[in-house]
Amino acid sequence: MQYWINHKGVQSGPVDLDALKQMGLTSAAYVWHEGLSDWVSITQVPELEGMYEAVEGNPSGAVMGQPYQPQPQPASQPAPQQPQYAEQPVQPEPCPPTNLVWAIISTVLCCIPTGIVAIFYALKVSNKYREGDIEGAKRASEVGAWWCIATIILGIICQPFLSMLTMSLGH
């Protein structure tokens, strides 16, 4: 059986008998379980006998001048509990790709001037991300990728001309 507890103004539950034994309850606690129409003092539930410490002089747990009034729960609904869909912690957005490896490779193998621009934007991605500028990091990643592509295309276009230049200088 599952129990909901209201002890010292704090509601918790559902809990089973094993957990209930370890809660350190006093006779001032109130209990509700399915089948009860309202909260009752823990002293009024026979199966919970001996699972609480008696409080002398104030067995009901009422605060001086203010009688304790727990909120009733309908028998068809369990007492308040954790929401089923608790809010998940917000995960930080991952860093966009820097394309640094591609920028370096395209610089060395294809075209140095445009490759340097690609490296510049690749390094900018990490810096923007560390500063918390996620949108700036995404833009730098995209621009750096386009510079890598431009570097590779320029290298492919220029390769035949460089080969001819090298052959003419060699003869």
Structure characterization notes:
With 171 residues, the chain is an alpha+beta fold. It has two domains: 3-68, no CATH class; 100-168. The protein contains four helices and six strands; from the N terminus they run E-E-H-E-E-E-E-H-H-H. The chain has helices at 17-21, 100-109, 112-130, 134-170; strands at residues 3-7, 10-15, 25-26, 30-32, 40-41, 52-53. The strands form two sheets. It has a four-stranded antiparallel β-sheet with strand order 2-1-4-5. A two-stranded parallel ribbon has the order 3-6. The longest helix has 37 residues, at 134-170. It is rod-shaped. The chain starts with a strand and ends with a helix.
Number of helices: 4
Radius of gyration in whole Å, from Cα? 36 Å
**Number of DSSP strands?**
6
Distance between the termini: 96 Å
H-E order: EEHEEEEHHH
Biggest sheet, spatial arrangement of strands: 2-1-4-5
The biggest beta sheet reads: 4 strands, antiparallel
Let me know the average pLDDT: 78
Q: Judging from the principal axes of the Cα atoms, what is the shape? A: rod-shaped
The low-confidence parts are: 58-68
Question: In total, how many domains does the architecture comprise?
Answer: 2
- The structural class is alpha+beta
Beta-strand content estimate = 5-15%
Helix coverage percent of residues? 40-55%
